[in-house]
Amino acid sequence: MKVLAIDTSNAALGVALVEGSVVKGEILTNIKKDHSTRLMPAVQLLLENCQVTPQELDLIVVAKGPGSYTGVRIGVTVAKTLAWSLNIPIVGVSSLEVLAANGHYFNGLICPLFDARRGQIYTGLYRYHGNQLECVESDRIVLSSGWAQWLREKQEPVLFLGGDVALHQDILTGVLGSLAVFGPPALQLPRPSELAFLGMNRTSEDVHSFVPNYVRLAEAEVNWLARQKEQESHGN
Amino acid sequence: MNKDVYVLGIETSCDETAAAIVKNGKEIMANVVASQIESHKRFGGVVPEVASRHHVEQITLVIEKAMHEANLSFAELDAIAVTQGPGLVGALLIGVNAAKALAFAHQLPLVAVHHIAGHIYANRLVTEMKFPLLALVVSGGHTELVYMKEHGSFEVIGETRDDAAGEAYDKVARALRLPYPGGPHIDRLAHEGRATLDLPRAWLEDGSYDFSFSGLKSAVINTLHNAEQRGETIEIQDMAASFQESVIDVLVTKTIKAAQEYHVRQVLLAGGVAANRGLRTALEQKMAELQEVELVIPPLSLCTDNAAMIAAAGTILFAHGKRSELSLNADPGLELE
Ligand SMILES: [Zn+2]
Fold first, then answer.
1. Chain B nearest C-alpha distance from A221 (Å)
2. Superfamily assignment of A2-94+190-219 in CATH?
3. Quick check: A37 and B327 CB within 8 A?
4. Residue B260 belongs to a domain with what CATH number?
5. Which amino acid positions bind Fe cation, per UniProt (chain B) (predicted)?
6. For a Cys staple, A5 with which of A86, A195, B100, B134, CB 3.0–4.6 Å?
7. Does residue B93 form part of some domain?
């Protein structure tokens, strides 16, 4: 089974080709340069080097967010177009879960995070049971300070993962002290091969209705809903 | 020998997700448009983030529908044409990336198309183009006069320096408290009223084919405001008629003048504002006075944003050897050249 994995949901751009239990190839860059120009050339280079044609692919796995709205849309658009036109299944995996997968062998909670500006982070909580990564707390957007307080209650070591961890490191160590553990740089980037393995045994989704998990509504939608609510309360 | 050429077009520059298949640059095999207008009406205009989200929801559905209607497989296509710009960047990105994925998956040539070139080539789906020609492109995002001496050659001889005509319509409609999109409402009201109000016409420098509508828009708002201050009422129909007359006067006069100066054989009207009855009528009347110049106005479905026009323009560019790489990016400020 040949799996193509695509992740452009945050600063890193990653594509991987996994066949069965073997990582055939992986391209991973972390240079905050526009994903739109580089994603398809990366996919092309990867498949050419691995001597695999698009028609030989069996599954597309994509990181579906949270992350940059534009970034995640690029990955999802390419993934769903490839899956649909090649007539193969598509699986979406949380971008945070991909990052959490780097925490193999860590005995404690794994907390992946992406900066969401104004002191906020996209985060969730995961834990390995043997080889199996499990989600303990679902993905969300929170203030890193409040999240750190809440984690402290758990009285367990927490491994923080993600390229944006440095932005919140002072807050996290300030609250959690020695319970806060930070991975080395190589583990701070989401690995597209981990994405492929995470998606490989999941039930596929309907390709046409497949969309990113933005976590947040568009700002205009939020304002519109607030106005609707206001009008309703005035109407009564 | 002369094999038929089938091009798939994809267009997502604003609030329509569209895919179409055109045969030999002239014959529509399928033309699918998923409009988001109902969603954006809630906000009184197109919200870029919301538009991008809708495009992701619709993109594969729309392409699938087009392929089914044309009854073609990817192996039977000759090229994929996609709008590269101008437009909303987040929206353009969906079409561009979908097109690149398809081109890669099925080893098909990729051709980037300028949105305005698309609008102009919508005419080729109606009648053969006769060169040299002049195209007046008027929409919510554009007001341009484009001269073409031959296929694939575009010279912008005039463009708006501020608001597009369609944008001015929407802003004036808002000032008149008409629902979005305001253009059709103003057109309708204009026919019920009389152009009794004195509004400016921006002719700009002598010999310029450029346009400017922001002064006119401000004049409308000031006139309404002043009347309100004095406790006078302005009939909304008369304001609509006066505004529309001013816009059309400038558009038609400059188009006729350019048609004469450039000795064109054809004048094409393109873009969503081509639906405006006032503009159509005025252009038809004035054009009738010109000798041996044909006026072409495509049906409304080809004037508003669609992908058949992108496929039609892409077919010509493809024949001229234009190819795009997989590194193709959306360009919201793309120049027509
Ligand atoms: Zn347009």
1. 8
2. ATPase, nucleotide binding domain (3.30.420.40)
3. yes
4. 3.30.420.40
5. 115, 119, 305
6. A195
7. yes
